[in-house]
Structure formats: structure tokens, C-alpha cells
Amino acid sequence: MLCDICGKNPATVHLTEIIDEQMNELHLCEECARQKNAQMEQQFGLSDLLAGMTEFTKPNTKEAEALVAVKCASCGLTFADFKKIGRLGCGECYNSFKKYLGPLLKRIHGSGQHLGKSPFKAVKSPKKEEGLRELRAKLQNKIEAEAFEEAAKIRDQIKEMEKNGTE
Amino acid sequence: MELSDLLKHTSEWLKSTGPNSDIVISSRIRLARNLEGMAFPHWADKKQGEQVLTTVEEAVSKINYLKQTTIFRLADLDSIDKQFLVERHLMSLEHAQKTNHKAVVIDNEEIVSIMINEEDHIRMQVMQSGFNLFEAWNIINEIDESMNKELPFAFSQEWGYLTACPTNTGTGMRGSVMLHLPALVMTHQIDRVLAAIAKLSFATRGLYGEGTQASGNFFQISNQVSLGHSEDEIINSINGIIRQIIEQENQAREVMLSKNKAVLEDRINRSLGILKSAYIISSQETIELLSMVRLGVDLGVLKDINRAAINELFIITQPAHLQKIENKKLSAQERDVKRADLIRDRLKIL
Fold first, then answer.
1. Taking 50 as the threshold, does the pLDDT of residue B167 lie above it?
2. Contact A89/B40, CB-based, under 8 Å?
3. Pairwise CA distance, residues B36 & A118, whole Å
């Protein structure tokens, strides 16, 4: 089979496109597939994805208008700017757009609570740290034994302990 | 250190000394950090951009752990130098594009590199040979702590480290592992494996990260999610996936050896034959043939060839490396000739 675009090289990449519910199959050679891929990446850039993901926060047009006008007091970036470029302007933007970023972050990461390290030296009780270490080892064992239900319980326990530790 | 000094040695991550070095080339952890109260690089004006650059440079020079590093301002580098750093995986393609107020900090062994004013104010990475994310984490964690003593990072209790793009918020961490999976590709199982990885919300990329195609059977696998899990949890989940892929690649290698030994040996030896005798060779063909030779070394089909030397050939046959070695600009045709010369030369010694 020859490539649908150039008609010269053998087709090695098989692509299914869905445009307006119309399904379209394409058989392409590597070179044309690469170009096609670059086009698609341009079309569906991260900023579009992010902008699309925020649509659900505005049920009516009045709120939508108000939303795009929201401005970060610290750096001057508006929500409309964020939708366009897909990047925030400064750390303070997270506060300025808190109401809208919360659901967005949840959608991207499946969670809205940081559980990793923190830059401020939290006072750690050594005893608690030891307890956490034990729990983590237990969790690892359960995962290796494929006892996922029990593992999930231990994971929640650890999360709870860690959360309390950072506050 | 001068940039050309890097040519005199093999990058630490290419040395093939780490765990599972037959299948895993390298493990990398990167952390994204931003300075509190400063606009992110894409939104900063000239003054702020310059201020961030000098502030971070100063902090770097104070950190004991980073004593053996050199800071290169991107505005001082020509296009070959920039591409050279990208080819060595010391900075991203994005960093090489617009160069104002940007710098990259590199340590002598090429384990640590820090990009200043890329998408975030600070993007630090640590690379290790083989399957060794936790070691990379230990090193980068220490650098992060020392940096934090000098610089206030933008952080929220709820959302963690705040980054320019919300996809990096939280730990700001991306762990990635570079795998060489020729047997899964040759036995047509790779699509199934990659589809499974995508379902678990991990990303697969090519040799040069974001937006690059997988080539020469190399795949870079990394976490997508950075918020809602601790760094250890993220590393553990990547490790779990990588262990399974290693096992599948090993199985595919065994099947090929037991069922198609002659075909496999033929392909490996022909690949070596072409590399040893070609006078003109493209970088794409080089990568594909070296991939087969590397498999030959892993399977014991080719003896007396050193895996680290093959790893290094993947990098030094890239366009900017050839021009750096020759110390002049070369056209694509000239490079194809120089590349073939270099490969014949290196394989003669092995």
C-alpha cells in the first residue's frame, strides 16, 4: 500500500482521524506521517487543551465575560491571557484564579492536594517519621503481593499522616 | 570548563554502569522551581528576566554541591554550541530557541544541569546511568534543599510548587527513564505496550524529549501527573511500569533468540558490517544500525564490543557533535562523510 499523501513511499503508519463525527482512515509513509503529526500538535496545542478544560466552569455567558476579565493583581495577566497562552504569569496567579484553577488542576492531575515535599522546614516528629517509614514498607509489600485493597487502605493512612505533618 | 572539554570524556549517564544497563540507558529526574514574587519567564519583562538570571546564578555559585559546575549564558553561545548541549541532553530544544536572559549550569561529569529561565525560572535535572531513579532523586533533592536555602520558591500548601504550566504544579517533578526496546519493536508488540503505558497516564517520547519521535528503538517514559502524590510515590509508580517493560523486552529477546536466531544474528552482523564499511551515512541510518549492534552486544552475539562505546557513538555522531569535533560548520553532505569516518575509526579500535 502506498502513502495517501505523497503516493510514492509505502504506507507504514495508519491513522484514524475523526473530524465532526466523520471518521477518516489515513495510510501514510513515515515522512508524511511526521509532517501530519507536527500539524496536529500545532492544532491541538497544550493551550487549547487547557482552554477547553476551563469551559466547564462557565455555565452562562455573563459569568464567562466576567471570568476572562479577571486579572492577577501581582503580574497583570488576565484569565483570557491564560486561556490563550496556556501558562500562568506568576506564582500569585494561582491565588488570583484560584476558583477556576482548582477544578482544572483536579482534571489534569486527578487530585487537588499537594503531598510532596515542601520548601519550608516543617517540624517533623521523629516518631511519626518512623511510623511513616514502616507504613511505606508495608505498602510496598502489599503492592508486591498484589493485595491492592489493603494497599489502598495503607496508602490513605499514609496520606492522612503526611497531610497532618505539613500543616 | 570550556564546552569543547565535554568532548574529551563520556557523559556519566552513557557509561552503562547502572542497574539494567542492557535495556535502560539512563534515568533522569527534573524539578521545576520558581522564585516567589517574580513573573514567570514568558511573562517577565527584560528587567525581571535579568534579575532572575543573576539571582539564580549567584545562588548557584554559593552552593557547595555545585562547586564543580560552569554557567553558560545562552546569549554567548553560537547555534552549534546550543545544539551540541541539546544533543548531550543537557538542555531542552525550547531553551535553545529564544536565548535572552537564559543560562545553563553544567557539572563536569554531566550528572547535573540547571536551566535558568526556561519555561520556569529553574529547571534542574540529574541524570544517572541505567535504571536508577532513586539515586537521581537523592542527588537532586540535596541540590533542591541547598537552592532553597538561598532562594524563596513560589509554593502553596494546597498546590505545592507553583509552575508556569499547571501540568507541572505540585512536586514540579518529572522522572523519566530512557529505554532501548528493539525486541518489542521487532516482534510488533511495542504498540500494545505503549498503549498500556498511555492508559496509566504516563507519557512516551523519543530520544530528545517533548515533541520528538521515537527513533532507533529508544523510548523515554515519564510521569504526567505531578500533583497529589509524593515524590517517592511517583518514582515507585514509574519504577513499577519500567520493571514490567524490562521483563517484556527480555521475554521478546528470548523468543527471538530461540525462534529466529539465524535471522537475528544476520541482522546484527550486517548492521555492524555497514557501520564498519560505510563512507557516507545519515544520522537516522546510524541510529538504526547502532541500535542493532547494541542489541548484539546485549545478547552476546557480538563479543569484544563495549556497550559504553556504542552508547557514546549515538551522541557523537549527531550533527552538532560532528561540527564541534571538526571545529567548523559542515553541510549535511559533509557531515554524512565525517560521520562515516568517525564510526569506522571508533569501531576499528573496539
1. yes
2. yes
3. 14
Query: Which of chain A's residues have a Cβ under 8 Å away from the Cβ of B162?
Result: 88, 91, 94
pLDDT at A44: 45
| Residues B274, B332 contacting (CB under 8 angstroms) | no
Question: Looking at beta carbons, which residues of chain B come within 8 Å of A113?
Answer: 158, 227-228
- A122 neighbourhood in chain B, CB within 8 Å: none
Whether B230 and A115 lie within 8 Å, measured CB to CB: yes
Touching check for A112 and chain B: CB below 8 Å? Answer: yes
CA distances from A135 to A130, A131, B183, B268 (A): 9, 6, 38, 48
Query: How far, in Å, are B190, B195, B256 from residue B260 at the CA level?
Result: 18, 26, 5
Answer whether B123's CB lies under 8 Å from B29's CB: no
> What H or E segment, with its residue span, contains residue A48?
helix A46-54
C-alpha span between A55 and A83 (Å, rounded)? 10
Q: Which residue of chain A comes nearest to B147, CA vs CA?
A: A119
Q: Does A167 have pLDDT greater than 80?
A: no
Q: CA angle, B323 as apex, B322 and B328 as ends, to 5°? A: 150
The pLDDT, as a whole number, for residue B224 is: 92
Tell me how far apart the alpha carbons of residues B234 and B134 are, in angstroms, rounded to a whole number.
11
Determine the distance in angstroms separating the CA of B328 from the nearest CA of chain A, rounded to an integer. 30
Q: ipTM greater than 0.95, yes or no?
A: no
For chain A, positions 41-100, list CB contacts with chain B under 8 A: 41, 46, 50, 74-75, 77, 85-92, 94-95
Is B226 within 8 Å of B172 (Cβ atoms)? yes
- If pLDDT is split at 50, 70 and 90, which confidence band does A4 have? confident
